[in-house]
Amino acid sequence: EADIYQTPRYLVIGTGKKITLECSQTMGHDKMYWYQQDPGMELHLIHYSYGVNSTEKGDLSSESTVSRIRTEHFPLTLESARPSHTSQYLCASTSNYGYTFGSGTRLTVV
Amino acid sequence: AQSVTQLGSHVSVSEGALVLLRCNYSSSVPPYLFWYVQYPNQGLQLLLKYTSAATLVKGINGFEAEFKKSETSFHLTKPSAHMSDAAEYFCAVSDANFGNEKLTFGTGTRLTIIP
Asked: What's the gap in Å between the CA of A96 and the closest CA on chain B?
């Protein structure tokens, strides 16, 4: 049973819409991450957080933004979605024992 | 900087045959290495990890991997493939203790099992 939850699992939206992808974990982990995964491509880190009120940009430039107001919650927001944002977005958190990944949100912008 | 190269984006093996998925890494510091499996429409599940202990690492579902520093490799193997092994496999590297820092992933290898 997953301890990290992502909603929605699938989302199809029109260009220009604002969207928020939700990520929550019940393990009390301080470190959380967002990865972007395109088909046939590796996962790229786009955002990470080492605790409340801490957010950093990852290795891959992204037009999305994140917030970390509570330990368990790490939402990702796109202010104006574009077709180039079509991808799968995976959220993860870590402890000393390693990563736990969510099931992902598959986003399609039309 | 770290990087991971997975040789072969698609691998097909017959059921019962040996599975070998290749991973080579580049790291300027002692690496921590991981193999993850991703089933369709799911997140990533950890198969096994190398954290500078034994070079032969055993994971879940009968998989194992051997860390070879001289070859900068961390290939994943399973003696006998099962239909349920069909999935996407990702090799990843980290440079921090216990792998709780940023991971750098390979491009993945899709494993198909032939009945």
From this structure: 5
